[in-house]
Structure formats: structure tokens, C-alpha cells
Structure to design on (316 residues):
């Protein structure tokens, strides 16, 4: 899966395949996705659902289908987590948003209501409205998933919006998309995650760009994503290292990827490498003895450890 790939699909994740009722995707055992609107505050060219958000006739659900989605959740007690998405649910009229939030919050077996929104980034003034923030606060189950892609998107206005949510008791996490020429460098991503932590937003996912139609020029190689994650590990707090994921084609789900720190293993020992602390001379491998004759564990450093570490670092 590289930036040179010519693969472009209208619906790469095939969400409709796992849709028991219109607007709802039930792919994971205990989580569902609800699409509540096709309207956004801005329309991202790399959006995996732009086949519909760019079609003004798409997903024009009647209130009947809204009720069917909620009823499905009431009946499926194995579901503990719902993602309210779109489009952007915070573009909904207050009356309709209140209906969704109230109905979902009343379902006892739902532990978490996640609202996926770019409003804190693209229209933060919407969250200057205390009535909206209070509506979300009173639900008691809401987590916010927002979407910053570059440190320049962190402004005094976006900080005010995010802090309003945090102060109202809602955790805020961030999804970023790896975009060629935008944020596909270690320095930019370090600045982004540090900026997010400063405004109390937890970096959660770094998504490999989906192969949607018209977004091929944004796609990097998977190796670039791994390089960025390795460049974050050890250089920013663990709180600031997102999980790098590829959303598998044809409904395969999220597949997490990370650099390999396990060089080799046997029944009695493993060879591990640490993050490369540049300029500090501490990039190394260590062998850890798993089984010992005493209660205390011992560390050993075989002669070939450095060579093994260099071989791993040389991989593309």
C-alpha cells in the first residue's frame, strides 16, 4: 500500500456491507457507527465518506430511520460504545442533536457515546455556545473525537473550544490522517502532538490515508507512517504517541502498525532494541533473560547485539 498505488475506490471500507439498518454500521462486536447527517463544516478531499457528503441528495434520512438506528441499539445489549458521526453531528440543529443525545444517553447498556467532529478545528465558534456544551455535558457519557492534521490548525479559538469541552467533563481525543506534503514528517508530527497535549487533547489515531477517489496524491507509503511513529517514541510523552492504523479494505477493520522493537526471541531470552535517542549515544539492543535460576532477572549483552540493532535500523 504505497503512494504510487493507483487503487482508488468510492467506498474502500464497504460500510454499507455491515449496515443492518440505514445509517448504522455494526462491524465490531460491541461497537457501532451511526451516521446522523451528511453535512460538514468543511469537506475534506481525503474523506472516506465523500461519496455521500459531496452528494447533497445522500443520506437524507427521515426521522423514521433515525428511530430505527436508536431502536437497534436498544435491542442489542452487546453494544457498549456508539460513534455518532456523519458528516458532522455538531452541525445538526439543536433540536435534532438533543434528540439523539437524550435517546442514546438513556440506553443503560451504552457506556460510551463518541461524537466524531471537526467543529473544534474548523468552526470552533460553534462551541462558544454554552447551551451546546451544556447539552453534551448533561449526557454524562460523551467523549469527543476531533480531527487536527497540522499544528497550524491549533489556534486560540480552537484551544478555547477544546478547553470548553474538557472543562465540561468530556475527554477529547484526536484522529489525524497522514497526508503527503502536509504532515508526513517527524518534526511536523512532533509539533502537532505537543500542541494537542498543551490544549488537553489526546492524540489517539494516526490514520493511513484511505484509497478514496481523488486523494491518491495525499497517500504516503506505510514505511513513512512507521518512521513517524518511531520518531515520536522516546521524544514525546507516551501520552502523545498515537496508534498508527490502516483501515483495511472491504471491511477488514482497523489494523494497528508499529515499529518492531523485538529483534529476535528464543525460549529463554528476547533481544530488544530501544528508541534511537539521537545524539545521546543510547541507541542499542539488549538481551533479556526470561528464565533464571534466581528470583531476580538478569540482563545480558551479547557481542552481536549491536550488529543486530544496526541491521534492524537499516531496514526501509
Amino acid at each position: 500500500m504505497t503512494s504510487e498505488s493507483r487503487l482508488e475506490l468510492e467506498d474502500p471500507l464497504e460500510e454499507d456491507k455491515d449496515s443492518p439498518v440505514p445509517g448504522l454500521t455494526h462491524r465490531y462486536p460491541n461497537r457501532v457507527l451511526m451516521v446522523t447527517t451528511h453535512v460538514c463544516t468543511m469537506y475534506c478531499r481525503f474523506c472516506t465518506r465523500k461519496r455521500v457528503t459531496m452528494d447533497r441528495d445522500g443520506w437524507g434520512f427521515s426521522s423514521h430511520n433515525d428511530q430505527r438506528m436508536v431502536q437497534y441499539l436498544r435491542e442489542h445489549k452487546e453494544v457498549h460504545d456508539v460513534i455518532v458521526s456523519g458528516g458532522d453531528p455538531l452541525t445538526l440543529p439543536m433540536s435534532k442533536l438533543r434528540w439523539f443525545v437524550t435517546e442514546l444517553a438513556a440506553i443503560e447498556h451504552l457506556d460510551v457515546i463518541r461524537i466524531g467532529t471537526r467543529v473544534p478545528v474548523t468552526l470552533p465558534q460553534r462551541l462558544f455556545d454554552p447551551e451546546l456544551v451544556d447539552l453534551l455535558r448533561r449526557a454524562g457519557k460523551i467523549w469527543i473525537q476531533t480531527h487536527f492534521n497540522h499544528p497550524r490548525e491549533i489556534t486560540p479559538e480552537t484551544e478555547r473550544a477544546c478547553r470548553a469541552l474538557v472543562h465540561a467533563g468530556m475527554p477529547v481525543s484526536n484522529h489525524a490522517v497522514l497526508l503527503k506534503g502536509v504532515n508526513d514528517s517527524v518534526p511536523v508530527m512532533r509539533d502537532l502532538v505537543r500542541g494537542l497535549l498543551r490544549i488537553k487533547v489526546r492524540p489517539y489515531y494516526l490514520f493511513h490515508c484511505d484509497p478514496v477517489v481523488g486523494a491518491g496524491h495525499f497517500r504516503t507509503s506505510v514505511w513513512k507512517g512507521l518512521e513517524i511513529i518511531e520518531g515520536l517514541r522516546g521524544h514525546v510523552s507516551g501520552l502523545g504517541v498515537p496508534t498508527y492504523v490502516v483501515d483495511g479494505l472491504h471491511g477488514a477493520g482497523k489494523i494497528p502498525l508499529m515499529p518492531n522493537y523485538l529483534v529476535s526471541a528464543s525460549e529463554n531470552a528476547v533481544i530488544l532494541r530501544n528508541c534511537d535517542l539521537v545524539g545521546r549515544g543510547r541507541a542499542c539492543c539488549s538481551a533479556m533473560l526470561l528464565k533464571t535460576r534466581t528470583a531476580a532477572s538478569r540482563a545480558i549483552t551479547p557481542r552481536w547485539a549491536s550488529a543486530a540493532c544496526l541491521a534492524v535500523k537499516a531496514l526501509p
